[in-house]
Design goal:
Shape: globular
Number of strands: 24
Low-confidence stretches: 26-39
Radius of gyration: 28 Å
Strand content: 15-25%
Distance between the termini: 76 Å
Helix content: 40-55%
Largest sheet: 9 strands, mixed
Structural class: alpha/beta
Mean pLDDT: 87
């Protein structure tokens, strides 16, 4: 009996000890989450400080949802917010404690719109603080980083460093031969001569309309980017094109100096010593630097002036447009959010930030209609700010705005609709050797049915369905832009335009970024001070995140172990299966920058 009690007490103690460890672990997780989701450390800005802008890692438009599993494992937690970077740069211009700015160019992952926002902030800094300086340093300048660095007063590079400057390129992969070999017949219904998103499945190479539109927007975007670089480096645009054409990346670094690509060749410790001399420090270790993330904790980016003049809502619509889901632009989540804003008496105006290549035609219509309800119910102004993409469905949800802002480089338009219905009969019967028989009460019971080709009657019905969707799309655009539907159809046809062309065609009202759109809507409200409130709010329950992440990992591990290399094919099929049948989506464009 004595041994039993000893064993029992030992077991009980073990249980209590395990619970204690679990509680301690829970406290650590919650504390870490609190720090990640809003805890701020005290930052003191001393005299002769340098604001460091680190062009490295991903740069996001807004705070992502917290992934607690990644937080615990210290994975994918190193990112920056564009508002922290631009807000810090502009605030530093009037901060007597800041002597200048250093751009550490280490290969940031950011779209052209975010890089352009940084460029504009640096330009404002130079205008407001002409006595301050901006230096850039890097070992290897990516083209995107060099675009930002070109605004600096001086660019420095490691003596054996490299500058990547090649121009723009877009690559499209065509899958028709693969589909033929697999025995998959891709049946397409679409409207729009330039609606090239379906081409990879039905063609072996690019069509002339697709090439025409890509050449136009790539050349226009490059003209804009190269003009910024040329202005910053004090050369003409042709010189920048000469750099790109002469493979400067593989030239000797010394050749960069006479070409004015850079201003100096310095090792990092030599560059740091120069900074020390500039800021009156006797030793490099005494340099006073502050990151944009830390500096942002000392300012309030949500307020302009005292913030009391108006409350402007910024609604973020980033990603693909889908019917349901927690990520991307889900109509099931976005529509209630918009209708809530319509009833929100604390909101004076709405700016929707759109960065989307499109997606579900059905979901796009639902979001468009909710935004119309916002205008009808609230009577408040509604603007749109377009980022890298606002094409097809992305433009659909934007076209009803009172004013549309876009960057010169924004890919927009692509007003067209398509549907893809694969027929795998040949694959299953002839390649795999499986026969099947369908019994149905009606001839179209399985439409759309991938087990056999569409009949002419079915194909005609699907084409008519898509054409009705296209007619509705162009009607929405015509109503929103206050021009005739025929005029919209003349520039639609699924064609993708860049922002500089879109403004000529009346698809866009003004060139500029999110801050320009916010300032313009504040001007319409006749206020000089205002507060910016962002939607949708980032909400997450830590325990749900961990459970969901664990479940996803188990599923992914099982799939990988069972399917091996074929797991990627499964994921692709699963993604296609979850897509709505009719899409307002531009083609997948891998724009290398």
């Amino acid at each position: 009996m004595k041994k039993f009690f000893i064993s029992f007490l030992a077991t009980l103690a073990g249980i209590w000890f395990s619970l204690l460890l679990a509680v301690i672990g829970l406290v650590i997780v919650i504390a870490a989450a609190a720090v990640s989701s809003g805890g701020q450390k005290s930052v003191t800005i001393k005299d002769n400080s340098i604001l460091t802008v680190d062009l490295s890692g991903p740069i996001y438009e807004r705070q992502p949802k917290i992934n607690y599993k990644n937080l615990i494992l210290n994975r994918d937690t190193d990112y920056q917010l564009i508002s922290d970077i631009t807000g810090s740069i502009e605030a530093a211009a009037t901060d007597d404690h800041i002597d200048g700015i250093v751009l550490n160019c280490e290969g940031a992952s950011a779209g052209i719109s975010n890089r352009s926002a940084i460029v504009e902030s640096l330009r404002k800094f130079k205008e407001k603080a002409p006595d301050k300086w901006i230096y850039a340093y890097g070992d290897f300048y990516t083209q995107g980083d060099y675009y930002v660095a070109s605004v600096a007063d001086s660019i420095f590079i490691n003596p054996i460093g490299m500058v990547e400057l090649t121009g723009l390129a877009s690559t499209t992969y065509y899958l028709k031969n693969l589909c033929d070999k697999l025995g998959i017949d891709v049946q397409v219904v679409k409207v729009g001569t330039y609606k090239s998103a379906v081409e990879p499945y039905i063609r072996e190479t690019m069509s002339e309309p697709a090439r025409e539109q890509q050449e136009l927007y790539l050349n226009n975007i490059w003209q804009n980017l190269s003009s910024v670089i040329a202005e910053g480096r004090g050369v003409d645009v042709q010189k920048v094109n000469d750099w790109a054409n002469n493979l400067v990346a593989v030239q000797a670094t010394e050749a960069y100096l006479p070409e004015k690509i850079v201003d100096g060749l310095l090792y990092r410790h030599e560059f740091d010593q120069r900074l020390a001399d500039l800021t009156g420090q006797d030793k490099v270790k005494n340099l006073r630097t502050v990151s944009t993330a830390d500096y942002a904790t000392t300012i309030d980016n949500s307020k302009v002036g005292n913030g009391k003049g108006a409350n402007i809502a910024v609604l973020y619509a980033c990603g693909e447009i889908v019917d349901n889901g927690d990520d991307d632009i889900s109509s099931s989540a976005m529509v209630p959010e918009i209708l809530d804003l319509a009833e929100n008496e604390d909101i004076d105006a709405l700016v929707m930030y759109v960065n989307s290549p499109g997606g579900s035609a059905y979901a796009s219509e639902q979001i468009w209609e909710a935004l119309q309800q916002f205008k009808k119910i609230s009577g408040k102004p509604f603007y749109v700010s377009m980022a890298d993409y606002a094409a097809s469905g992305g433009y659909y949800i934007s076209c009803g705005a009172d004013k549309i802002f876009a960057h010169p480089t924004t890919l927009t338009g692509s007003i067209g609709i398509f549907g893809i219905i694969p027929n795998y009969e040949h694959l299953v019967k002839d390649k795999v050797g499986i026969n099947y028989v369908t019994v149905a009460t009606n001839p179209d019971a399985l439409l759309p049915d991938g087990s056999k080709p569409m009949t002419p009657r079915q194909a005609n019905a699907m084409q008519a369905y898509v054409e009705r969707g296209y007619d509705l799309f162009t009607k929405r655009c015509a109503e929103g832009r206050h021009i005739s539907q025929d005029s919209i159809k003349a520039i639609a046809e699924g064609r993708v335009w860049d922002g500089s062309e879109a403004i000529k065609l009346g698809l866009v009202d003004q060139l500029g970024g999110l801050n320009d759109a916010i300032a313009a809507i504040a001007s319409e409200l006749n206020v000089e001070s205002y507060t910016i409130s962002t939607f949708p709010s980032v909400k997450s329950k830590w325990y749900e995140q961990i459970i969901e992440a664990a479940g996803t990992d188990i599923k992914a591990s099982f799939i990988r172990s069972e399917l091996g290399e074929a797991a990627s094919i499964y994921e692709t099929v699963r993604q296609i299966k979850g897509m709505a049948p009719i899409q307002c989506r531009m083609e997948f464009t891998e724009l290398r920058f």
